[in-house]
Amino acid sequence: MHEELALLTEAGLTPAEALHAATIAPARVFGLHDRGAVTPGLRTDLLLVDGDPATDIHATTRIRHVWIAGTRVV
Hints:
Blueprint: H1 2-10, H2 15-22, H3 24-29, E1 46-49, E2 63-68, E3 71-72
Antiparallel strand pairs: 1-2, 2-3
């Protein structure tokens, strides 16, 4: 997935647009209304990374912590 995000930015998307394409957009397309955004009431799967992936897509490879369904697993 990290390589695909980088390829999306190489193809012309901004890092923020690439993140949107990997999170909110597929959730909507596949009808997964309980996920895709950090919003109260939605399923919470999160990555905490070193850096700002909205400006540097390679920050997604520098994972510090992972939460699945609101529970920290790494």
